[in-house]
């Protein structure tokens, strides 16, 4: 089962202003335009108790709280602090889907071996953010994105809320309709006019009530009200990682075909990693089906490596795990990404290879010595001069490595 976090900084812009200007601490602060047509970009918790919230006209906000202090936004400053926060996220997982400067989903399914169970990871992230920025964050922990986002809002500010699978109905059913992402004020008003007030009532509402509002999306709305959400965390594929991906002219179904393509991709990212003199401690496999649904699977390990064989072994395990869930799925795109990068100089020469990758240490050492030799051959004679046997489909494979010219 997946482990998803939703991290949401508390009153981010306003909190940055209160931190940078201690004289504002504890005071009602509005970040936004002060003109007649200005809008509240952020509201401190001290001003929220007067009914002020983001996206409200500044004029109306000052009517509700005349003694509020209006501060002009400093976007460059918020971006700097956001970069610090996201750096913390990437220390725990490469699967970070940023939603804004102050909010992100994190898939920590593959991080448990290194960092503990999801609630412990969430607590560590909160502590590290506070230590580095002086700011607080609220974190929701669940097995999908929808529930994690709901959870992060339940104990704000500085909250940590876990929704376990067996507690979904108990937690969601009493919540008001507007807690569900996608149900805005107008839709909520129409549902309330139909006699529905809570997510529990929405979950069991008949078609006669829901179909006029949602049409063919009626069943999906019921599923969302029940906490069902299959969306994967989709990270910025290029952010802080070395990656390669391939879109196929014809969708692939056979495991042997996918393994061969995975080997080619692992070879490509391995070459780039060594060229940049980097090590990686996390491998991500990206898979896109024929219907464009995209999945990512990741695993972190120690010690870091730049060995192609190790990367390929981890990537195969991740792909095979996905194939076990979706046998015979038509795959239109495959990708391999390496993250948790560090300089080559940090390599521990006496450390054992990751247990999850290659079981035989001598084989890992042999391929580690072989990789630079292959890199030099390709640099001199071209990228197609030599190929790994694992990159050829079964039935076409020869022992060891093969001269590409022998295939023509």
List keywords for this structure.
about 400 residues, alpha+beta, Alpha-Beta Plaits, DNA polymerase, domain 1, Dna Ligase, domain 1, 3 domains, five-stranded mixed sheet, five-stranded antiparallel sheet, about 20% strand, disordered C terminus
Could you provide a short overview of the structure?
By secondary structure, the protein is an alpha+beta fold.
**Taking all residues together, what is the mean pLDDT?**
85
Please list the strands of the largest sheet in the order they lie side by side.
Answer: 5-6-1-7-8
Strand content: 15-25%
Secondary structure tally: strands: 15
CATH class of the largest domain: Alpha Beta
**How many distinct folded domains?**
3
CA(first)-CA(last) distance:
45 Å
The rough form would be described as globular
- CATH topology annotation of the largest domain: Dna Ligase, domain 1
SSE order, as H and E? EHEEHHEHEEHHEHEHHHHHEHEEHEEHEE
Going by helix content, strand content and strand pairing, the class is: alpha+beta
Number of helices: 15
Second CATH tier, the architecture of the largest domain: 2-Layer Sandwich
Helix content: 25-40%
Q: Mind explaining what this structure looks like?
A:
By secondary structure, this protein is of the alpha+beta class. It folds into 3 domains: 1-163, Reverse transcriptase/Diguanylate cyclase domain (Alpha-Beta Plaits), CATH 3.30.70.270; 169-225, 5' to 3' exonuclease, C-terminal subdomain (DNA polymerase, domain 1, Orthogonal Bundle); 242-407, Dna Ligase, domain 1 (2-Layer Sandwich). 39% of the residues lie in helices and 22% in strands. It is built from 15 helices and 15 strands. The chain has helices spanning 12-20, 45-48, 58-64, 75-92, 112-115, 118-133, 145-152, 168-172, 185-193, 199-203, 207-214, 218-225, 255-275, 308-325, 361-381; strands spanning 4-9, 29-32, 40-43, 69-71, 96-100, 103-107, 137-142, 160-162, 242-252, 278-289, 294-305, 331-339, 342-343, 386-388, 401-403. The strands form 4 sheets. Strands 5-6-1-7-8 form a 5-stranded mixed β-sheet. Strands 9, 10, 11, 12 and 13 form a 5-stranded antiparallel β-sheet that branches. β10 (278-289) and β11 form a beta hairpin. The longest helix has 21 residues, at 255-275. The radius of gyration is 25 Å and the shape is globular.
